[in-house]
Amino acid sequence: MVSFEAIRASNAQISTTLPPGLVAVFVGATSGIGETTLKQFVKRAPQPRIYFIGRREHEGARIEAELRELNPGGVYHFVQADVSLLRNVDDVCRHLRARESVINLLFLTCGSLLFEKQTDEGLHYPMALMYYARTRFIVNLLPQLRQARSLRRVVTVAAGGKEGPVFPADFQANKLGMLSFRPHATSMVTLSLLAIARQAPEISFVHVYPGFVKTGMSRELTGVVPAVTKVLFASVMAMLQIPIEETGERQLYIATAARFPPRQADRGADGIPVGPNVQIAVGADGQPGGGVYSVDYEAEGTSQRVQHVLEQFIKDGTAEKVWSHTEEEFKRITGSTTV
How far is the CA of 243 from the CAs of 106, 215, 249, 257, in angstroms? Predict the structure, then answer.
């Protein structure tokens, strides 16, 4: 566990340790964890160049104005898009690639709890956002991330550390209930990061579980069951809930600290140096500094349980099947594995 005091101390060094002009892309940043982390980054990064993507134009305009107040020295671009559709993801990535040759940070939080919905591209809606769209952003922007001379990091906020059984007969999780969906989707996310990291060992990839955070995702849910569930769990959430600003600071640490370096590290790309009594995190491969990390909100390294789960997926061929399925879906929908 990294103490919150150590996290804040590390974040305080961003303005003096990281170079000016970092380019960061936040996907799903018009509310919740994406918005709060974006603002924490802008508060501290000198002269940042920010692109943030979301569905709601009025929220984008509001946040853009707030970012200018927080840091007048930065450059801010809101990109409106429904990224549940991979064709829209590709359009956004073409827009970004035309404007930036280098990206330092890709921070992904897009998601949904609408389990009964399908996209018109034939994807299960929550998986389209949590898995397919996020993975598409990463592979599309990999050349820009690899070109960065300073920080090079991908952070995907979902349920790192909660990996479990994968159902190859239902990769999209169309027929899975909530209890099966989370470990299945979580494993697919981490396995995709491992596959991509083999192509780009100079980038660090972190899959993080943020803890109990009030993000607004539940507002999408309607009907009697969600309403009753919210009432029943209200007291539990009140006790366990992490304040949204604290969540932003914790995610900023995960996005910038050298506790999570690339597997093929070089000086200047690791992030803010670790402080006293803080060690390099253990990666998904069981090695310190492994380059791919599945962590919780306390910034722990990848647990032995998760390491064992992932190792079994590699041995029994599940990891290869997940990545083959992903590329097949990309080709089915867009015609290619990347833009």
Answer: 23, 10, 10, 21
